[in-house]
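Subject: Predicted fold for Histidinol-phosphate aminotransferase, 364 residues

User T.R. writes:
Posting the sequence so we have a shared reference for the thread.
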Amino acid sequence: MTANPSLEELPLRPELKGEEPYGAPQLDVPVRLNVNENPYPPSPALIDDIAAAIRDAAAGMNRYPERDALALRRDLAAFLGHGLTAENIWAANGSNEVMTHVLGAFGGPGRSALTFAPSYSMYPEYARNTHTEWLTVPRKADFSLDVDLALRSMAELRPDVVLVASPNNPTGTKATLDQLRALCAAAPGVIVIDEAYAEFARPGTPSALELLPAFPRLAVSRTMSKAFAFAGGRLGYLAAAPAFVDALRIVRLPYHLSAVTQAVARVALAHAPEMLKQVDALRDERDSLQDWLSGTGLRVPPSDANFILFGRFTDRHRVFERLLDRGVLIRETGPAGWLRVSVGTPEENAAFRDALTEILPDSE
Ligand code: PMP
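User M.O. replies:
I've generated the structure tokens; pasting them so everyone works from the same file.
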């Protein structure tokens, strides 16, 4: 038996007092549409290839993994195209860790990071953990970027790091390339465009990767968690100038990417067409679910991601609970009165529609 102090009795950093660990509920219910996962598991053939790669990695497990993950970064560069090479790519355990590296290198005490609210709820946590001051500027009422306000705020607040998610979580709305270009031109420090959901954007949507040649302090972040159906593999990455990547290498822990992660991510990349094959279907499902939600009279910002924000409810918690009672788990996130649902399989989406149809009449 060890001593068993309460958290209050431990000398926790003052700013962490009363904080809860981040994370949506992981509940074992029939329909889980709460964390923007890809609902399609890997095929049996892909599972075999992943297992074989883990077996090979196991044979060298007495050694530390390749610290710079160069082979994986080469594969990621080839996957992204745009003339990028391994030196332009950084990878870590999810884009959450990539972003922590960015704030570790470019934020810190006496420095600040700015985003456009509402946005991804982990951003303030990266800032807190790296002692970076956290600043937000509101989006417009339709959740699009207010570029004029953004430019004025950047000039006034001089943030060291600007974080822009496009498509944005939890609103699903995307910025235009011209808007992003204007932000890049005005950002006084580094700017990260978080494209975690880029693959779900409507066809023809340009990627911010196109802006990399013009802006040396820009990084474009991606993840294999969503479109790649690889959330459990934990692999996020970004593309930037080699010097930007060198800055991140200073703050990473040595051997941060395990041999298993590197090997498995390379297998997933080698199977990119298969891993990404359901994206088109998910996009179609997203569009029809969005149309259906609008048809019920709810407000639904246009989504370019694999989730949809909808509202507004006077008591969103009640709607969340009543969906959960019917076996459908969604997310209580975003501004007051709104809820977010991830796009699932056609069957899961139908279950969500059925459950919501039952409870909508008295949920306004
Ligand atoms: N950015 C955004 C906008 C997200 O929504 C998420 C996941 N919810 C992430 C980054 C992090 O993804 P991961 O760590 O799984 O790569």
